[in-house]
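PROTEIN DESIGN WORKSHEET
SECTION A - STRUCTURE
LENGTH: 248
C-ALPHA CELLS:
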C-alpha cells in the first residue's frame, strides 16, 4: 500500500530517524517532515537531496494554531489522505520549561511552557490534520513518556513534564474515542520510546542504566514496529518501545 506519512518534530533526534526509515521503505510514497526550521535544517536538506519530492519539508511551530492551520492547508494542496502521523514533540527543560525537583521550583511560566509543547501541540496537530484522517485506515501516534503514568510515579519530581505527559495521554485517549466514531479504521497510539540519546535526555544520561540509553535510529525502529503491531482494536492505548503496555 502506498502511504503518506507526516512526522512533526522532524529536524533532529527520533523525528529525523523516523523520516530516514520511512523514506527507505518502498511502500511509503511521501514523507512530510515538519518542524520549526524544516526548510533550513542541514540533516533534512541532505535527505531532500537524496529523495527529491518524496520528502516535503514544512516549517511549522506546532504551538501556534495559525501555523498548524497553514500546515494543514499545505498538506491539502498535495494529498487527500494521511496514512500515518507521528508527533515527536516534547521538551523537558528548554523554551522556558524546567525539570523541577520540588514544589518551590514551580512557576506558572514553566508549567505553561511544558504543557504548550508536550500536551497542547500534539492534540492541536491532530485537530488540524483531522480532515486527512477521516477515511481509510490511518494511525496517529504521539511520543509520551513512562513518567507520565500516574500509577507508575514512585519517585516524584519533574512536576511539569510528568503532568504535561499525563495530560497528553488523556487528550489522546479522548481523541481516540471521537476518531473511532468518525473513522472506525483509525488508530490513536501513545508511545514511550525509552530513554534516547537526544537533546532532551542529555543532562540526565549519567543516571541511565547500562544498555538502556538508545540511539535515535533504534528508538525510531521500535516506534514503527509498535505502530505496525497495533491497529484499531488498540486505539487509545499506551505502549512502551518493547511492546509492553503502560498503565495510566
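SECTION B - SEQUENCE
RESIDUE ASSIGNMENT:
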Amino acid at each position: 500500500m502506498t502511504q503518506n506519512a507526516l512526522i512533526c518534530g522532524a529536524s533532529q533526534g527520533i523525528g529525523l530517524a523516523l523520516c530516514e526509515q520511512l523514506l527507505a521503505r518502498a511502500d511509503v510514497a511521501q514523507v512530510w517532515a515538519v518542524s520549526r526550521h524544516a526548510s533550513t535544517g542541514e540533516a533534512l536538506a541532505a535527505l531532500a537531496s537524496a529523495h527529491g519530492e518524496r520528502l516535503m519539508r514544512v516549517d511549522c511551530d506546532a504551538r501556534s494554531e495559525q501555523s498548524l492551520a497553514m500546515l494543514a492547508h499545505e498538506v491539502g494542496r498535495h494529498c487527500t489522505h494521511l496514512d500515518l502521523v507521528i508527533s515527536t514533540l516534547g521538551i523537558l527543560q528548554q523554551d522556558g520549561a524546567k525539570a523541577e525537583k520540588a514544589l518551590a521550583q514551580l512557576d506558572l511560566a514553566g508549567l505553561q511552557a511544558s504543557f504548550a509543547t508536550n500536551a497542547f501541540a500534539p492534540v492541536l496537530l491532530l485537530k488540524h490534520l483531522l480532515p486527512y484522517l477521516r477515511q481509510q485506515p490511518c494511525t496517529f501516534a504521539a511520543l509520551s513518556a513512562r513518567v507520565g503514568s500516574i500509577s507508575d510515579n514512585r519517585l516524584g519530581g519533574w512536576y511539569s513534564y510528568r503532568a504535561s505527559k499525563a495530560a497528553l495521554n488523556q487528550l489522546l485517549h479522548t481523541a481516540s474515542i471521537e476518531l473511532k466514531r468518525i473513522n472506525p479504521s483509525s488508530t490513536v497510539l501513545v508511545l514511550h520510546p525509552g530513554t534516547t540519546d537526544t537533546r532532551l535526555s542529555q543532562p540526565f544520561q549519567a543516571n541511565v542504566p547500562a544498555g538502556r540509553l538508545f540511539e535515535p535510529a533504534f528508538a525510531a525502529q521500535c516506534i514503527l514496529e509498535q505502530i505496525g503491531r497495533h491497529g484499531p482494536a488498540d486505539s487509545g492505548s499506551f505502549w512502551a518501545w518493547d511492546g509492553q503496555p503502560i498503565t495510566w
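SECTION C - NOTES
The CA atoms of residues 137 and 167 lie 26 Å apart.
DSSP finds six helices and seven strands in the chain.
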